[in-house]
């Protein structure tokens, strides 16, 4: 009997070191260098055991270090694949955020690798030089182990078209239905590595989100026979277990855990399976890989501490995230101000992306900016109707729930199974009121533009990031056909340019949002 150990990381988002970059001395219980040390231990030779190591995507974007490489040293993007080589990975899979800096950057990042990158449901990926095909077959210990790579099919809803030139995305389930039976004829073990998550509860089958094609993991488990192991990601959840008879993992984000699936194979058939996660916090960063990257990390830390501008007026420091979302905040007003200036629009929307956003201190540094606006979003301006705007605001109003004791909290839909605080927007350029005592869908009780009530058929222009402008976050009233202008410079660069033009910025406390709860 042969033991097969399948290990995975996913959604590292460029967090190599155990830091969230809040300060030079910030330390956190995660980081890929910790995960690499865990993997090195698990990859140690053992009798009758073979190992397979997979990275499941979203490797190139997210951390300030990733931003530094992409914007300041893009020719050094081969760092990412060289690190996976040094970590003895057997396979890579594309994640949705790996497209964030465009195909040229993605190709550069993959240029020096010695492992295959798989993208079975991304048509044209091989021709564009970002994939080696739909699957690979690894021959280890007398076994043939097939790995099929899949990416969430929802990528075109988020990415600008020029980041996806020549690519089309197919359903992960339909693709797996086509490939898994063929791979069963070619291999002893079939592994599906899917950069996507679950749209339903893994035990009850109850839907946990609207079926858009973003997450199809539950359908993969229920509808595609022949999968021996399923690796997932994208949702940043920590999952390990056997569901529908298939051992399944999802190892969180930022290298917080390593997914491990153990298979016992006898006479070329899997006879036993289990899955678990190994938390990386107790393990020090891999010393060899740390030595290779510590100088880069030092340059990033110095780059982050460079001042961008200065503030006066109302404080842009965020100390209470819920209050900022309920009442608006000078930091959010400023981001909307930058959006309106760049997009030449009278209405703007932005999100407080997570509860770790701390806004700006009187001297604004690049560290503060990248920690507060961590995405390389560009902007779009859309022409919408008053009814569209009303529908978007009702979606925002559903973000809150009122407890029995009268306290306002975030509705479970935005925290479970995945935390999605970035799907609530605060608006400027309009005056509006939510009444949380009203049922969801009927909470917007006041909406005015330039002092007048907004009519359903009124034509308005609104600027927002391209994720929201493509309908991301369940905002179907926004879509590409309504775009009238695009601002192709990313938001971080736009904020930096704003400070260059206005070295001292005055913080303004907004009063255009009222919430009754």
TrEMBL record:
Domain Calcineurin-like phosphoesterase: 5-237
Record's keyword terms, sorted: Hydrolase, Nucleotide-binding, Signal
Entry-linked Pfam families: 5_nucleotid_C (PF02872), Metallophos (PF00149)
Phylogenetic classification of the source organism: Bacteria, Bacillati, Bacillota, Bacilli, Lactobacillales
Superkingdom of source: Bacteria
5'-Nucleotidase C-terminal domain span: 323-478
Protein name: Bifunctional metallophosphatase/5'-nucleotidase
This protein's encoding gene: cpdB
InterPro entries the UniProt entry points to: 5'-Nucleotdase_C, 5'-Nucleotdase_C_sf, 5_nucleotidase/apyrase, Calcineurin-like_PHP, Metallo-depent_PP-like
């Amino acid at each position: 009997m042969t033991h097969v150990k399948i290990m995975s990381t996913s959604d590292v988002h460029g967090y190599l070191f155990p830091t969230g970059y809040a300060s030079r001395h910030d330390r956190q219980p995660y980081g890929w260098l910790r995960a690499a040390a865990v993997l090195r231990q698990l990859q140690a030779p053992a009798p009758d055991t073979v190992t397979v190591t997979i990275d499941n995507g979203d490797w190139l974007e997210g951390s300030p270090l990733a931003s530094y490489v992409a914007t300041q040293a893009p020719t050094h993007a081969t760092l990412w694949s060289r690190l996976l080589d040094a970590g003895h990975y057997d396979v890579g899979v594309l994640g949705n955020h790996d497209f964030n800096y465009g195909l040229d950057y993605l190709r550069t990042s993959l240029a020096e690798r010695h492992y295959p990158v798989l993208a079975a449901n991304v048509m044209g990926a091989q021709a564009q030089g970002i994939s080696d095909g739909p699957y690979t077959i690894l021959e280890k210990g007398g076994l043939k182990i097939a790995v099929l790579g899949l990416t969430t099919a929802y990528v075109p809803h988020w990415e600008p078209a020029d980041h996806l030139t020549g690519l089309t995305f197919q359903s992960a389930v339909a693709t797996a239905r086509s490939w898994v039976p063929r791979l069963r004829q070619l291999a002893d073990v079939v592994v599906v590595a899917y950069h996507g998550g679950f749209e339903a509860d893994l035990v009850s089958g109850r839907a946990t989100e609207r079926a858009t094609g973003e997450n199809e993991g539950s359908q993969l488990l229920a509808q595609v026979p022949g999968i021996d192991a399923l690796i997932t990601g994208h949702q940043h959840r920590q999952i390990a277990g056997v569901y529908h008879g298939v051992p399944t993992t999802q190892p969180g984000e930022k290298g917080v855990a390593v997914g491990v699936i153990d298979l016992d194979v006898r006479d070329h058939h899997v006879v036993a399976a289990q899955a678990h996660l190994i938390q990386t916090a107790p393990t020090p960063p891999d010393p060899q890989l740390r030595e290779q990257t510590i100088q880069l990390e030092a340059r990033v830390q110095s780059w982050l501490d460079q001042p961008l501008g200065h503030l006066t007026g109302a404080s842009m420091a965020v100390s209470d995230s819920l209050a900022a979302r309920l009442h608006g905040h000078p930091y959010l007003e400023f981001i909307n101000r930058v959006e309106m200036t760049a997009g030449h629009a009278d209405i703007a929307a932005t999100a407080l992306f997570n509860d770790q956003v701390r806004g700006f201190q009187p001297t604004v540094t690049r560290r503060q900016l990248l920690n507060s606006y961590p995405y390389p979003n560009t902007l779009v301006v859309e022409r919408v109707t008053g009814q569209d705007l009303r529908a978007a605001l009702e979606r925002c109003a559903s973000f809150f729930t009122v407890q029995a004791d009268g306290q306002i909290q975030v509705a479970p839909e935005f925290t479970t199974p995945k935390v999605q605080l970035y799907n609530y927007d605060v608006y400027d350029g309009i005056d509006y009121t939510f009444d949380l005592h009203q049922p969801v869908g009927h909470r917007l009780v006041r909406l005015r533009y330039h002092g007048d009530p907004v009519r359903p058929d009124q034509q308005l222009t609104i600027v927002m990031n391209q994720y929201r402008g493509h309908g991301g976050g369940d905002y179907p009233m926004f879509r590409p056909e309504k775009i009238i202008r695009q601002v192709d410079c990313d938001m971080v660069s736009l904020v930096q340019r704003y400070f260059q033009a206005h070295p001292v910025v005055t913080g303004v406390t907004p009063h255009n949002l009222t919430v009754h709860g």
